[in-house]
Design a protein that fits this description.
Two copies of one chain form a homodimer. The first copy, chain A, is an alpha+beta fold. In chain A, 58% of the residues lie in helices and 13% in strands. The longest helix of chain A is centred in the C-terminal third of the chain and has 18 residues. The structure holds a DNA duplex (30 and 30 nucleotides).
Amino acid sequence: MKKEPNMQNISLDTLFELSEFFKFFGDTTRIRVIHLLLSGEMSVSAIAEKLNLEQSVVSHQLRILRTANLVKPTRDGRKIYYALDDEHIGEIFNTGLAHILHKKKG
Amino acid sequence: MKKEPNMQNISLDTLFELSEFFKFFGDTTRIRVIHLLLSGEMSVSAIAEKLNLEQSVVSHQLRILRTANLVKPTRDGRKIYYALDDEHIGEIFNTGLAHILHKKKG
DNA sequence: TGTATATATGAATTGTTGTTCATGTATTCA
DNA sequence: TGAATACATGAACAACAATTCATATATACA
């Protein structure tokens, strides 16, 4: 019995984690925050202003991303700067983006 | 004012579509189905049996993936075989998987 | 045509998730 | 120490999404 090239043996547990991981990208607010942070670190208030969102909305979503170690906070005085904390985020973002843009053309 | 290398100008609309796209991968049932179909097309009942899920659960999720053109059905008699219908699915799946496996190693 | 098989789907239910609003904590500075 | 600023957080609410159960449709075959 032959295996196809793309097939891999992945545990149920890993598949669960994988879906949990993709969930972080599956929300408009979070993907906008991620997109913004691709250009560099930014304070909470700056993010909120740039995205025209309430501060608490941004804080709540940042907490989710922070808990998942996708962003990392650095305090400077009263401000807290958030930066992407995962090498794969840009890659995944761009792979998904390529799909969307390709679809738009076709 | 200089732009960082990873920054791109992406419309709000595109970002919304992007998050919608990632949602498809953000569910355990769907990611398991996608994973299964990476090895080739499979009938609904075969998917349900392989994943130990009820037929209606699989059908409902396949409809979501079908509506998004991520899978494509082909009827053969009474059976309907579903196959992945997007070149980017495997790429996205594997990029996310790389992240999970990398994280597991510590 | 009647029965069995394979799949799809609608409605109800349940669980989950995002936002809002109010408030709490930390820091700065006068 | 008190006021202002920046951010975090808990609880309530609303919206959404997944599963379940019952049933409908389509095909095959006797």
